[in-house]
Design a protein that fits this description.
alpha+beta, Tetrahydropterin Synthase, Chain A, three-stranded antiparallel β-sheet
Length: 268
């Protein structure tokens, strides 16, 4: 009498004869002799595995918790079943050991910022070793490197202090810029006020000079201008000018010309 065993797709069937491995069969329906033969299916498909969080000490004696996930598949069903009682656990131990070695050669800050580098080094380190157990690691990833609570608290305080320092510097720079702009505005206002006052002073001085000149002309006696008129004609007579044409009503005004000139000279 024969038994029937169906080996599903992506599986390998290991046939034992009287408790000893005899041969392997592929996916499909297979006959065997009960009590004498057994067929054990081994899954060859990719399997995800999440390793429990565990503690790792960095080069500068900082305690971090590592969370790792990986994908693996069985490459050799015979080695996977018969050469190790638990190939998956053995692979997990290798991953943890190599990860401790890699992170143990790094400082905390370097480890926290180098997860891609750690992933690559870890994949290279365990690639050939897992073949011993009939397993190949297809992908490995460090999901999280988390410092211990005390270290995290110290880092948070340091980060807060850095932020407060940056904010204080920014505030001081802003206040200094505000003071600079305010001082410049006040100086510009003072300069503008001084220039306006200077212009006003010059205008008042010019007005005062003209008023004084007009007052002097008003106080001058008519006889004085007549004498100046005679002197003006005397100077014209002694000059090289042959002819001077003026209206009869403007002749008396010629005497005012020297007077006005003297006043302007004295005022200046």
């Amino acid at each position: 009498m024969f038994g029937i065993k169906i080996v599903h797709q992506n599986h390998k069937g290991l046939v034992e004869f009287l408790g000893k491995y005899h041969h392997s069969v592929d996916a499909g329906m297979h006959f065997y002799i009960p009590f004498i033969q057994k067929i054990y299916p081994v899954n060859l498909a990719m399997n995800p595995l999440k390793l429990p969080d565990y503690s790792i000490i960095t080069k500068d004696n900082a305690d971090v918790r590592a969370s790792v996930t990986l994908n693996y598949h069985v490459t050799d069903a015979v080695k996977y079943r018969y050469e190790n009682t638990d190939s998956v656990e053995s692979m997990s131990q290798l991953v943890r050991g190599h990860l401790r070695d890699i992170i143990g050669r790094m400082d905390l800050n370097e480890a926290l910022g180098s997860t891609s580098k750690i992933n690559q080094e870890l994949a290279n380190a365990i690639g050939d070793l897992t073949n011993t157990y009939g397993i190949n690691v297809d992908r490995i990833n460090i999901d999280e490197l988390k410092p211990s609570a005390s270290i995290q608290d110290s880092m948070d305080k340091q980060l807060k202090a850095d932020r407060e320092r940056v904010a204080a510097i920014a505030k001081a720079e802003g206040e200094a810029k505000s003071i600079e702009l305010t001082t410049k505005a006040k100086n510009d206002a003072l300069v503008a006020t001084a220039e306006a006052q200077a212009r006003a002073t010059r205008t008042r001085a010019e007005s005062y000079r003209i008023d004084k000149m007009n007052e002097s002309l008003d106080r001058a006696k008519e006889g004085y201008f007549q004498n100046q008129t005679i002197d003006a004609f005397s100077q014209l007579a002694n000059s090289s000018t042959n002819t001077v044409v003026v209206s009869s009503d403007q002749i008396s005004d010629l005497g005012k010309i020297p007077v006005v000139k003297k006043m302007l000279d004295n005022t200046n």
